[in-house]
Amino acid sequence: MSQPAPNTYSFVSGKNWKLSLAELTSFLDARGCTFEVQEISHSFFTVKTDSPIDASVIDELGGILKISETAAFVSTEQLAEAFIKENKQAKNQIKTNLPLDALADKMPSASSGKSVFGVSVYWADTPYSFNKAANTIQRFLGSSLKDELKAQGKKARFMGFPRGRGHPQLTAVEVLKKGLVEDSAEVLLCIGKHKTSIGTTVAVHNPFEFQKRDIEKPVQRKIFAIPPRVAKIMVNLTHCTAGKVFLDPFCGVGTILQEALLAKAKVIGIDFNRWCVEASRRNLEWIDREYSLENADFAVLQGDSRRLTSKIREEIDCIATEPDLGPALRQIPTTAYAIKHLANLKPLYSDFLSEAHEILRVDGFLAIVSPFVKTRSGKPVTMNLQETALKIGFKQVKPFQAVVFAQDSSAAPSLKDTASFVDVDEHHKIGREIHIFQKTK
Q: Which residues is 47 bridged to in the sheet?
């Protein structure tokens, strides 16, 4: 067992792990936090920061499901020896190395009856296959921790899983309903390529809040509606922080504006459609009341996003937006149709980017969605937006180029060239390609 550096955390990501990592690193960078990404996987990231991370940041992130504070590291090779090769001596050594006493110390005694605790196991793509061993590891850790709690005079019940669950991982809803965060009662084991972190969950995202902002806002629009979680990610990709002036020039019913307002930005929305303008105002007023925001500052204007300079009289710090993605498609199109589909939209995007460059302050960020169209050939058709943006004077942001990765991080070289992020559901015919640009002069 080795002790982690202070302020070492594991972040469990949503289904689009690259987008989640880009959001997290942008969020930390915007707040001046020095950090190093030590482990990257499709399900979690281990990050060392220069200062403690408050558990409340989970509410400010759209792509992170859980945050665990690391108590210790154990060798992944030793874990494989114990549970894949089933070496009893290695298993006993693992139990000796686990910080069971420290984990149990954090869990309170139940005032009556037994308290409840849980264990979730996540794993990276390692030289060893932990798919089959993960359930065994989860039960071993739970049993070992239960013995330690008993030795401390604490009665506790080890929380199991519904039959048929594929991975030994508690959902956010289960953690919330059982109050496991408040009791420091969920243990996260994150198996990395070389070392495995073990710690206590200090924060879990609340899916009910995202659901509320999605389906309880006064005015809805179902077609091409951007989910609040993706909207929040886009706001964070623009390095938006409290007090900055934030613009969505294709605001629709205000979903992106809502997330920017919750980030305490000064929010401006523009839409050509008068109905959308009124809908956004009503939804922002609802957010202001529902979350009791202090000094919420927002305005929604009717106007043409291709003529922003005639409408916006102040310098903008951040822009995040989803322009028109084109008409809804009833079936997956041919490649030729998809190319024509995007060609019809290209002038709108080009004109908007020119105007956005004029009103954005130097060093300001723009996060923009362009269509990602599936085709019958199986090869998607996308808009070459970066070429247009570069000609206008934007710099394309590759979020991972400025990130400090641990020296042994094998994923870092390929990640550093990542320039855009695709977000598309299996049943959708048109998805989102999210680009990030910066005005440098």
A: 9, 37
Q: Is 113 left (phi over 0), alpha (psi -120 to 50) or beta?
A: left
Cα 147 versus chain centre, distance: 36
Topology of domain 8-205, CATH:
VC0802-like (3.30.2130)
Separation between Cα atoms, residue 257 and residue 265, nearest integer Å: 9
**pTM recorded for the entire structure:** 0.95
pLDDT at residue 411, rounded to an integer = 64
- Residue 388's region, left for phi above 0, alpha for psi from -120 to 50, else beta, is alpha
- Amino acid 111: pLDDT: 65
Which CATH number does the domain 219-439 belong to among 2.60.120.260, 3.20.20.120, 3.40.50.150, 1.10.3720.10?
Answer: 3.40.50.150
* pLDDT > 90? residue 370: yes
Q: In angstroms, rounded to a whole number, what is the distance separating the alpha carbons of residues 367 and 348? A: 16
> What confidence tens digit (pLDDT) does each residue in 108-148 have?
887 666 789 999 999 988 777 888 899 999 999 999 999 99
State how far the alpha carbon of 257 is from the alpha carbons of 178, 234, 367, in Å.
33, 11, 13
d(CA 437, CA 363): 10
How confident is residue 410, by pLDDT bands cut at 50, 70 and 90? low
How far apart are the C-alpha atoms of 96 and 148, rounded to whole Å? 12
The structural domains of the chain, with segments of one domain joined by +, span 8-205, 219-439
